[in-house]
Write a structure and sequence with these properties.
mainly alpha; about 0% strand
Length: about 160
C-alpha cells in the first residue's frame, strides 16, 4: 500500500470520526435533558439517533482495523500509532487521532452520567413497587440459577380515596 493513499484514507476516517463523536456528544447532552424532563417520546427519538451515530462509529472503527490488518499491525491503538508513523511523517494526523480519543472520553463520561441517572430512577421505581407489592421488607436472596428468588406474593388491597 502506498503511504500517501493510506494517509488520505486515515485523514477521511479521522474527519468522519470527529464529526460522529461531536454529534454523539450533543445527542448524549440532549438525552440527559430528556431524562431530566421525563420526556419519554423525545428520549426514544434521541436514542434512535444515538444508535445510528454509534453504528457510524463502529463502521469507522472497522475500516481503521482493516487498514491495520492490511499492514499486519495490531488492531488496537498501538497499531494505529504505528500506521500513523508510517504514513504521516509530519504527524499532522496524530493531533486528530488524539482529538478523537478526547472526544470519545467525553462521550463516555456523558453516557456514564446518563446511565447513573437512569439507574437511580430505576432504583427509586423499584423501591416504590416493592412497597406497593409488600416486598419492601423481605430479604433479597438468589435462587440456584442466580436470579432473585420470588417470595410468595402478599395480598394487599389498594384503594383510591
Amino acid at each position: 500500500m502506498d503511504p500517501d493513499v493510506c494517509r488520505e484514507h486515515l485523514e477521511k476516517l479521522l474527519a468522519d470520526e470527529v464529526s460522529a463523536l461531536t454529534r454523539l456528544e450533543g445527542l448524549l447532552d440532549r438525552e440527559h435533558e430528556h431524562l431530566l424532563a421525563n420526556d419519554v417520546d423525545e428520549l426514544d427519538r434521541t436514542g434512535a439517533e444515538r444508535q445510528s451515530c454509534v453504528g457510524e462509529l463502529v463502521r469507522i472503527e472497522d475500516e481503521r482495523r482493516s487498514l491495520c490488518r492490511m499492514m499486519n499491525l495490531p488492531l488496537d491503538a498501538s497499531g494505529v500509532d504505528r500506521l500513523l508513523n508510517w504514513c504521516d511523517p509530519s504527524h499532522a494526523l496524530k493531533r486528530r487521532w488524539a482529538d478523537c480519543g478526547a472526544r470519545a472520553a467525553n462521550c463516555r463520561e456523558r453516557n456514564d452520567r446518563n446511565g447513573a441517572l437512569v439507574t437511580a430512577r430505576l432504583r427509586r421505581v423499584t423501591g416504590m413497587l416493592e412497597v406497593l407489592t409488600g416486598r419492601a421488607n423481605q430479604p433479597k436472596v438468589y435462587d440456584r440459577g442466580g436470579a432473585f428468588e420470588s417470595p410468595q406474593p402478599s395480598t394487599r388491597v389498594l384503594a383510591r380515596a
